Amino acid sequence: xxxxxxxxxxxxxxxxxxxxxxxxxxxxxxxxxxxxxxxxxxxxxxxxxxxxxxxxxxxxxxxxxxxxxxxxxxxxxxxxxxxxxxxxxxxxxxxxxxxxxxxxxxxxxxxxxxxxxxxxxxxxxxxxxxxxxxxxxxxxxxxxxxxxxxxxxxxxxxxxxxxxxxxxxxxxxxxxxxxxxxxxxxxxxxxxxxxxxxxxxxxxxxxxxxxxxxxxxxxxxxxxxxxxxxxxxxxxxxxxxxxxxxxxxxxxxxxxxxxxxxxxxxxxxxxxxxxxxxxxxxxxxxxxxxxxxxxxxxxxxxxxxxxxxxxxxxxxxxxxxxxxxxxxxxxxxxxxxxxxxxxxxxxxxxxxxxxxxxxxxxxxxxxxxxxxxxxxxxxxxxxxxxxxxxx
Length: 391
Ligand code: PMP
Description:
With 391 residues, the chain is of the alpha/beta class. The chain has helices at residues 5-8, 19-29, 48-59, 72-86, 100-112, 129-135, 155-161, 183-195, 252-263, 271-281, 284-306, 334-345, 371-390; strands spanning 35-37, 95-98, 118-123, 139-144, 165-171, 199-203, 228-233, 246-249, 313-314, 322-326, 347-351, 362-366. The chain has 13 helices and 12 strands. α6 (129-135) links the parallel β3 and β4. α3 (48-59) packs antiparallel against α10, α5 packs across α6 and α11 (284-306) packs parallel to α13. The structure holds 4'-deoxy-4'-aminopyridoxal-5'-phosphate.
């Protein structure tokens, strides 16, 4: 039976650069000891205190349907956290709890775009973005950035793409580049959204992982709160990827309608998971810093290993769990490099090309293995690149 056009076109066509990821996974299954520096998953599990809170909530009876918008206490906690972090007065009515940031991204686009509307996003991009937009019925349109502006979108590029579009999706701290958008970039984004009457969808799931610079939520810029939907998540900040809990923060009337969408799609998030998220958020910033600390250390390790060589250039890694490396001096594109590295050294990284066209000639390294192993892998990666650059 034929399926809908909507679902069959979610993935788009052509190679998406993920072959190397699947090849690495197949090697692991076949018993080859591959060092996987591919996806954004912590090498620690969820903290046991959080799991105990989840267990206590479940055993205590919070296993029935939870209220769809999210429990009062979690919505209050998220709202207070956003108020404290951004200075924008935020109420529980501004918050919808969702099963992770991914479903929030989908709901946000579904909420602001009609079928066929143009939804802008920035290239390089997190892998699901175009599919999420297509899945919500809109037309994805990439704004391609460049390595020489550290992959931050320029106001000119935004201006050029904006006419006729409905929404703009941005992500800072950024996956895959590790770049944190500057005040100037964010002001450019805000200006273009206001001038062209765009909704801004701001994916801030890495907001607790900033190594350099400051995370500014664009919702806090003048006139932006009324047109911004912020996507948040417990996945990265609290190593709760599998729990599937996140949120959308936006204007109350938009949230009220997104609650209608949730009622007819997800029907909310498990109550015991929400209780665990509430517990986790009340552990304070030390808990978040403990989760972020390994990436901060490995980012410093990366800088050390790369010092004193000029074959590989790092895009300044200011946040998130990744470092984007420019390997163009080897004469290879990202995909050939990643494949050759996997074959020769059994080290798996993501080709820049799997995140769009802007990061061609780059690779993304996820800093998601233990420090010593990470340092060793990176040294071998540099030696491998140097050998190829010399050829
Ligand atoms: N946005 C970005 C930029 C991400 O990297 C991810 C996960 N890798 C997500 C959203 C979705 O995260 P989750 O659904 O686990 O909250």
